[in-house]
Write a structure and sequence with these properties.
It holds the Pfam family ACT. The chain has 311 residues and is of the alpha/beta class. The protein is built from ten helices and 15 strands. The protein folds into two domains: 213 residues, ACT domain (Alpha-Beta Plaits, 2-Layer Sandwich), CATH 3.30.70.260; 76 residues, D-Maltodextrin-Binding Protein, domain 2. The protein binds prephenic acid. Prephenic acid binds next to helix 1, strand 3, helix 5 and helix 7.
Length: 311
């Protein structure tokens, strides 16, 4: 089975994809790279629409930089496409998060061997990675231009091919090794406990994941939350009334009308995944929300896997 991720090899997404394969025993998964996070989601939706069962791995959120909005926005856009029958939208709606895992993220400055910091004019990386190193860059390379590129490993690739010691990248130590470059002796991200949560997604009906997580999460998208006093309060109260703990709530603009949002909500599932009490409590929440005209798009009920970095 193919597993799509943000490439090229040696991105953090690559590390996460391999980790999912390890932990879930997906030994025969064939890892396939895409150039952007939206392209990862669309590659999976398009294959699924053609009847091919595939998986995708995307970053969802980071300790310091918050949500990886490219991931959430494409999920929101695909799920809310026009009402006319569209096989890709149908396929996208069948996609669910199957598992999540959180990786420690260590960013390294990647340069040509023996380059002096004073000679670096430009630093390339994924915007999330540049954001995670803002303080370090301000202190050590205040005059260097920061250029956003599609991924950390792509940044390392560009530096390697440019053969210009004035260029540096930010990314994994593995990327430095892979492209014949040097990594800084120490990581340079501003927060020492920097972590990113990744999702593995695919067709939940056909891909059964056997895994125990440290907890189970129900990820939802709420559309049409009434834009009136107490609208959001009304949308959230049923979760409280039925004993569900919300661990994340995030609004994103719907994209064509200022002041109107969709809400991404993570609910901690207090029961074993299919436990009758959980299902019954959740049905009650659903029926209250639906009677208020709120559309619920379920993004998955999945285990949060335990897995630290292999050293
Ligand atoms: O560029 C990469 O290496 C990625 O996998 C993307 C990404 C992200 O989008 O957050 C993944 C983890 C880190 O937080 C930095 C970058």
């Amino acid at each position: 089975m193919k597993l799509f991720y943000l490439g090229p090899e040696t991105t953090f997404s690559h590390e996460a994809a391999m980790r999912f394969c390890d932990v879930l025993g997906l030994a025969d998964a064939q890892l396939v790279t895409e150039e952007t996070i939206p392209q990862v989601v669309m590659a999976v939706a398009n294959r699924q629409a053609d009847g091919e069962d595939v998986l995708g791995c995307i970053p969802l959120e980071n300790t310091a930089q918050g949500s990886v909005t490219a991931a959430w926005d494409v999920i929101g856009r695909v799920a809310r496409q026009p009402a006319e029958p569209d096989p890709v939208r149908e396929a996208a709606l069948r996609l669910q998060i199957l598992a999540s895992l959180t990786l420690p993220i260590e960013q390294f400055l990647i340069t040509h061997p023996q380059t002096d910091l004073a000679n670096i004019r430009e630093v390339l990386s994924h915007p999330q990675a540049l954001g995670q190193c803002t303080g370090w860059l301000q202190k050590h390379l205040p005059h260097a231009r920061q250029t956003a590129v599609s991924s950390t490993a792509h940044a390392a690739q560009l530096v390697a091919t440019a053969k210009d010691p004035g260029l540096a990248a930010i990314g994994t130590r593995l990327a430095a090794q892979r492209y014949g470059l040097s990594a800084s002796p120490e990581p340079i991200q501003d927060v020492s406990g920097n972590e990113t949560r990744f999702a593995l997604f695919g067709n939940a009906r056909t891909t059964k994941i056997q895994a125990e997580g440290k907890r189970t999460t129900l990820a939802l998208m709420l559309v049409n939350v009434p834009n009136k006093p107490g609208g959001l309060l009304h949308a959230l109260k049923p979760f409280y009334d039925h004993g569900f703990d919300l661990s994340r709530i995030e609004s994103r603009p719907i994209g064509h009308q200022l002041g109107t949002y969709i809400f991404f909500v993570d609910v901690q599932w207090p029961f074993p995944a299919r436990h009758a009490r959980g299902v019954e409590a959740w049905r009650k929440v659903q029926s209250v929300l639906e009677s208020d005209g709120i559309e619920i798009i379920r993004l998955g009920l999945f285990p949060e896997l335990e897995c630290g970095r292999k050293s």
